[in-house]
């Protein structure tokens, strides 16, 4: 789905927002003598998003039941648009980013699109988390396709969901094997 912002943010606005939040943007003068350009906008938005997500993580305590601040956070997020199609597209993008960010966040090099390759996918728990995020994104895509009567796209997305869920289940099994090996090793050490 192509989203179009009715009032797209500019590089200057994002640089200013980052500055206000205490993150100075310094462009390499050799490559960007006039400062950041439109080509830098995705990276700048990523920096702003990272800063906001860090602040959200600090404000919303997910261990509370229910998580404190979550309702207000969601209310604020929903003020951007009341269009369910926009909400779904944002959620799909967020889940896809999460899948690719999971390895980096856990200090692993994880390629979420290739989680079946044990050598490249990282530890099973990390690869499984990435696969689950991608399965969720494709499940939302499948539902949107069904809602729109696009049956071929729905089937493609559901096939993808099943593949990611199979990968996730495999990683659960592999992680259980690691746990069992650790338990067996601990018992051997006691003997």
Overview of the structural elements:
The protein is mostly helical. It contains 7 helices and no strands. 67% of the residues lie in helices and 0% in strands.
Task: Give me the secondary-structure topology.
Blueprint: H1 11-20, H2 41-59, H3 70-78, H4 84-105, H5 118-121, H6 124-147, H7 151-190
Helix pairs in contact: 1-2, 4-6, 6-7
Brief overview, please?
The protein is 67% helix and 0% strand. It is built from 7 helices and no strands.
Approximate strand percentage: under 5%
Overall 3D shape: globular
N- to C-terminal distance: 60 Å
Radius of gyration equals 21 Å
Number of helices: 7
Biggest β-sheet, characterized? none
> Which regions are unreliable across 5 or more consecutive residues at pLDDT < 50?
110-119
H-E order: HHHHHHH
Helix content: 55-70%
Key attributes of the depicted protein:
7 helices; 191 residues
């Amino acid at each position: 789905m192509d989203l179009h912002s009715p009032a797209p943010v500019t590089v200057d606005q994002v640089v200013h927002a980052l500055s206000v939040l205490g993150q100075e943007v310094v462009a390499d003068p050799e490559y960007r003598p006039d400062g950041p350009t439109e080509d830098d906008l995705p990276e700048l938005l990523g920096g702003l998003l990272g800063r906001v997500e860090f602040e959200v993580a600090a404000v919303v305590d997910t261990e509370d039941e229910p998580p404190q601040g979550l309702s207000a956070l969601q209310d604020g997020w929903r003020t951007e648009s009341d269009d369910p199609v926009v909400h779904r597209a944002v959620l799909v993008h967020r889940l896809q980013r999460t899948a690719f960010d999971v390895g980096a966040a856990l200090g692993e090099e994880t390629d979420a699109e290739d989680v079946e390759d044990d050598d490249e996918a990282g530890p099973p728990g990390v690869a499984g988390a990435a696969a689950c995020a991608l399965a969720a994104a494709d499940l939302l895509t499948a539902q949107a396709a069904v809602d729109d009567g696009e049956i071929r796209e729905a089937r493609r997305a559901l096939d993808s969901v099943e593949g990611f869920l199979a990968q996730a289940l495999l990683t659960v099994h592999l992680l259980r094997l690691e746990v069992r090996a650790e338990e067996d090793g601990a018992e051997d050490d006691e003997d």
